[in-house]
Amino acid sequence: QASYRLAGCCSSFEENPSQESIFHLYLKTEACKLKMKLFSSLVVLLLLQAHSDTESTCQNEDIRSRTLSCAVAADSLQGGSSEAAGLLQHDVSARSVRIVDSKGVREEAKDDETKDISSTAATREEKKPSQAKPSGASKVGINLSVKWMKNPLPVAQAVAAIERIQAWLGLSRPIERVKTYDLSPSNRAMVEEIVQQSNKTSGLIGKVHIKELVIGIGNKELKSIDWPWLRSIYERFSGSLHVAVGNEPDRAGIKIPADKVEDAIRQIKDQMPGTQVTVPFAYSIMETSHPVSAANLTKKFKDEFHNVLPLLDYFTINIYPFLSAGVRGVATENLTGSNMSFLNDQISALRIALDRDFPHNNLPLAIGETGWPTCGAARANPYAFATLEYAQEFLTNVAKWMESSESDGRIVSGQLFTAFDEETKGTRAIERYYGILTSTGQVKNAYSCVTNATEASQAWLEKDYPDCESDLDWMVSNFDNPDLQEKFAGRDIDGSLCSFQQYLYDRWASCPPVTRIPGDTVDAEGDTIYGVKSAATKCWSQRLADKYSDRGAIVKPNVSHLTGQTEAKSQKSSHDGIAFKIQDGKAPASETGPAKIEFQTLQIYWINLDASQDRRKGMEAMFDDLRKAVPQNVNLQISRVPAIGPNEVKAMEKNKSLTVDATLIDACTVACTEHHARGELLYTEMGCSLSHLRAVDMAFSSGAESALIIEDDIRIFPELGDDLHDLLAVAPKGWSALQMSTVSTKALLTLLSSSSTFLRQDDYFLGTGAYFIHRSGMQVLRNTYAGQHFKRQQATSSAASLQAESVLFGALPQGSVHTSARYYVNFMKYPTTVHKMSETSEYYAVSSVDWQTNFLNRHRSRAPFPELQKQTNPVSTRLLQSSFLAMTTLVCRNSSSFENECRSIASSIRELRQYNFTWAVYVVISDPAQDGNCPGMESFKEFRELGVSLNYRLNAGRFSKWVYYTEDVEQFAKHDFLIVYDADMGLSSFPWVEYFKRYDEYANKFGIAPITGSVRNRSPFFPLKADWWSKCNRTAIRYVETDLVEQWFAMLNGAFATWYLRKVVETGLVMQQRTLGVDWGVDSAWCGAAAEWASRESGCLMMPIDMYHGDTRSLKQDVTFHQNGEHLTNMWWEKVPQWMKTSQLWLGSFFQDQSLGCSPIGLEERYHMPVDLRTVVPVVATRVPDNRSHHNVEGLTDQASGSSYIKNKSKDKDAEDPDEPRSSASFASLTHLAAAAVIQLFVA
Q1: Which letter, b or e, does each residue of 410-444 get, where b requires 16 or more Cβ atoms within 10 Å of its Cβ?
Q2: Phi-psi region of 312 (alpha: psi -120 to 50; beta: other; left: phi over 0)
Q3: What share of the chain is helix, strand, coil (3-state, %, to 5)?
Q4: Which residue of 325, 425, 656, 714 has the smallest Cβ count within 10 Å?
């Protein structure tokens, strides 16, 4: 039996079973359900029996403000009325829910024998004069706002338009409820108008008389509520006053803690007694909605808001059936039809979930928002259903449903969203057209939608991205709106069109992706990229280019919404190591190498223009810190080399002391690479080469055996002093120069994975920022350029061969220049002094070393020098001693591909017996008659070996392997590694010895990688294709940190696997995978999770070792598969956005661009892109988007699956201004093994 407490006023009945029984039985009587006064009398009798001083107890004001029960008792004693205040009258014992299950559709009354009744109505009745309460009023209300109109309607006209809405909806009773959104000036004016009209006895405009007013307080306003104004409304409004505290504060991205909501509610109840208080929640609070009888709330909601619900007078939900339009299995009739069956199911699911998780709150339900847009993007679901016809059908039917007895017992009120269109609202066109009336207050017609036309020359943009220009236009216009600061903050938006466009692509795919510097082609040299100014808008729209000429693709004219943390972090990463040394960390210093000499001199020559005073100060400060950090036995001799500027070069050219096989120019008018092809070279470029030769001369004249020459944007790590002796000791014999820095991304990755300390310098190892020069090399350079005659390396080569790299390293004996694979220097960030662009040029130059700076700072290895270590067993000790759990799925079927998969698994079991492998094979059977048996497997004896388990699972349709893998997540931690792989992958022929050799090398330098993967012969992502690594000088790269490892093969640290998958199960995402039958999301999030688990920036490592892929195509990947996958991906973004953001670039179009080529500086090699750098590091492809990316293609056959994709841009609703209403859930009916399933579309 339930235990009953009438809070604070009634003692517990649990101590007296007879009393409890009487009370329990009486609650079930019809009189209790229908007659509040009889119920009140019973309460009084029971209270009198239990307490001798009931009246005085119930008169306690604190108790009365908390419970309706005491108020009812007091009313009975005083002969007062028990009628609840305002229009919010409800009979909680008469509630019902609609159940849809295998038994069909039925209505069930909700028995409230375990509920308390909570209301503050009576208190307000005492505080204010009694008011006449209307009876039989309609439950229909309207959300009213003119805030986002281009030309806002006068508030009096807006209120008067409610009568027009009532007539259009065909309601038999007037609309007497209004809800506002926040306390902005326009909404305050609206409230003032309603209050003024409520107190008039004559002269009302039309027939509008609002009797229930819900004042919304925006999320941002909870910190500083205008109490004097609210109290004035409280005193003056003659109807029933309600306050909606916040708007969807449960939503991801809303940084309003629940205790702030709780505090605001308590203050309202204290300062405005009797006011009805609610909180509008988004439907995304539902973890599960189908079957209705099994509905459940999310754990996050229950944990955060469990203290808020007892304070509410009723529960408000924002709910939008529109968001499920077009979802497979959901009939439009169920969404818009007169019986509102879809909405009914959603309400019933919520009711059951609330009663299950909060059994003592007994909260009535109200709909805070529901609506249907009339126009917007018409290319994908649900937006293809945003038409006037669907909107009229839904709105009229939902209003009549609210007004009718069909909604009795389900809701106490329902607010339609919204009264008017608002042209400037939202980042999507569709957000502006939820109004029942136009922004002028007129009834809509077929011509009410505004088209988003572009120039005729941009037909492809209009066709493929019809909303792009209007969305960009809105963002540019509203970026500086102070009311939207919270909306734009923290979203990698810096005020440039480029950042706006990428945001719109990431969230809605309404614009082309930003994956290139403007222009059809890209020129790049060193760390400099050249783009065309006229293409700077990135949408190839001349209108926007002209209108917003100050907002270039890379230029950041407005950073008012950035917190400064990104810049601070970037600067910190650049300067780390100035005055301290990194800890030895992962590996001890070498004990087997030669003893250090007692004293060693390091001569450093640094090149600096006299005019570059900021650089000079930076270098001098760096050297001051370096002197304090290097060992005492290292003697630093530091000399500044005055750089040769353009004027000196011109003087040499004039007096003919300099001969250059090129035409020298002052500045580039096009990309400098084009000038080089013409045989033209900048004076500044020639000056750079001459400056290095001057430094060589100075070093040679000093008599030094070797010297370190650096440019004035180089920062030296103190570890160079520690390792100097060993570094030079292991240098290849006969070296003339040791390159210590490079700006090439590809080179950095090659060097990182090298098993040697030095590699022979290659052409793409660009950069002369820092290098050791041996005396023999000095002599060669002095002899070569004694006459200061500079020739191109070949007669046909461009003038680029006269740049410093070629002048210096190209003149030294072949094979004598080597590059350090250990990083001892980093870059400072200064504007370029070499690559000069003409002021009249249509091109601009972008230089960025942010990625390189971050990379170098993170990889300051303290591992021993491999050349000084004893030779070890070529087979990794880790491979020999670790335990592995290998898991895969096998779809039982009668086909040759099934036999091939069985053979592949059996071969893997056989070939890997020498290692400690345990095998778990999940055999999926569709025929119940074959449960526990799959014909054809009996011929493979390997499946009967010790350590091999066959786990049969029955599933007639689509399935997710992670449902099976996560049945026992704790088992993974019992193994050193978990390996998940597809049954057609060739584990048996995979070079495990080499794989673990690379794994160990990385681990010894930088620590273990929680997740590692490989490449195969087919993949939609180019860097995961084996042939990617045979092109563009990539063959020397042995491993790379990455933001995506696909789940067709991945090796996870066992402890991490348990931690990660346990959290995934807790979010409910595995259940969604079961419902949708797809695996998407697990591998999209795990690199981000791995980084968090390991407390490092990158959590995944990829070895470019080809793994055989049989490609049996046992998984059916049709249109539905990809639609479900998109929905599931949205859910992952809702639950774990911090993890999903890590793989965002991979899952966009960049690494799937058919035109992705080989840039000379390796920008396409940035497999791991730190989140902090994504707004400052250019990501470059080569041409205009071709709509052939992984999630934005039509009629493209994916090489990995052989499946046809469709355009599916039905993304989750964008996160609106937190104070603007929006629901975030949708249902989907699927017919595999169940009557229906839940698909929640949400707001990130």
Answers
A1: bbbbbbbbbbbbbbebbbbbbbbbbbbbbbebeeb
A2: beta
A3: 40, 15, 45
A4: 656
Evaluate whether 184 touches 155 at the Cβ level (below 8 Å): no
CB 872: neighbour CB atoms within 10 A? Answer: 9
Helix (H, G, I), strand (E, B) or coil at 625: helix
What's the chain's average pLDDT? 77
pLDDT digit string (tens) for 1098-1155?
A: 999 999 999 988 776 666 667 777 778 878 888 898 899 899 989 988 887 678 777 6
pLDDT reading at 645 higher than 90:
yes
Q: Is 528 helix (H, G, I), strand (E, B) or coil?
A: strand
* C-alpha to C-alpha distance for 767 and 471, rounded to whole angstroms: 42
Q: Which two tokens stand for residue 1105?
A: 């070792």
Tokens 């025929």, located at residue: 927
Is 711 in a helix, a strand, or coil?
strand
Instruction: Identify any residues that bridge with 711 across adjacent strands, giving them in sequence order.
Output: 607
Q: How far apart are CA 1176 and CA 850, in angstroms?
A: 7
Does the pLDDT at position 591 exceed 70?
A: no
pLDDT number for residue 513: 63
What are the two backbone dihedrals, phi and then psi, of residue 503, each rounded to the nearest 5 degrees? Answer: -60, -45
| Mean pLDDT within 634-659 | 95
Confidence of residue 507 (pLDDT cuts 50, 70, 90): low
Neighbours of 457 (CB within 10 A): 10
Span 819-836, average pLDDT: 91
Note if the pTM is more than 0.85. Answer: no
Instruction: Give the count of beta carbons closer than 10 Å to the beta carbon of residue 481.
Output: 12
Q: What's the DSSP call for residue 1185?
A: -
Closest CA to 1062 of 973, 993, 984, 996: 973
Distances (CA, A) of 433 to 128, 470, 474, 817, 1170: 40, 14, 14, 66, 38
- Residue 380, burial from CB neighbour count under 10 angstroms (0-12, 13-18, 19+): middle
What is d(CA 471, CA 365) in angstroms, rounded to the nearest whole number?
36
Q: 105 with 334: CB under 8 angstroms? A: no
Q: Answer whether residue 583 shows pLDDT above 70.
A: no
Rounded to the nearest 10 degrees, how much is the dihedral formed by the CA atoms of 105, 107, 112, 117? 110
Q: What's the rounded Cα separation, in Å, for the pair 34 and 22?
A: 18
Count Cα atoms within 13 angstroms, Cβ side, for 112: 24
Identify the band that residue 841 occupies on the pLDDT scale cut at 50, 70 and 90: confident
Whether residue 471 contacts residue 427, with contact meaning beta carbons closer than 8 Å, is answered with yes
Cα dist from 380 to 32, 1127, 1144, whole Å: 51, 13, 22
Q: At 24, phi and psi to the nearest 5? A: -60, -45
DSSP, residue by residue, 796-815? TS-GGGGSHHHHHGGGSPTT
DSSP three-state, residue 1154: coil
Give the position of tokens 């390091």: 602
Three-state secondary structure call for residue 884: strand
3-class secondary structure, 924: strand
Report d(CA 1163, CA 531) in Å as an integer: 15
Name the pairing type of β-strands 758-760 and 817-820.
Answer: antiparallel
How buried is residue 25: exposed, middle or buried, by Cβ count under 10 Å (0-12/13-18/19+)?
Answer: exposed
Q: Is 8 left (phi over 0), alpha (psi -120 to 50) or beta?
A: left
Contacts of 41 (CB under 8 A, 6+ apart): 76
Beta-carbon count within 10 A of 1184 CB: 15
Residue 1008: CB atoms within 10 Å = 17
Q: How many residues does the chain have?
A: 1244
Cite the DSSP H helix spans in 88-182: 121-127, 155-169
Amino acid found at 890: L
State the Cα–Cα distance between residues 1185 and 463, nearest whole angstrom.
Answer: 13
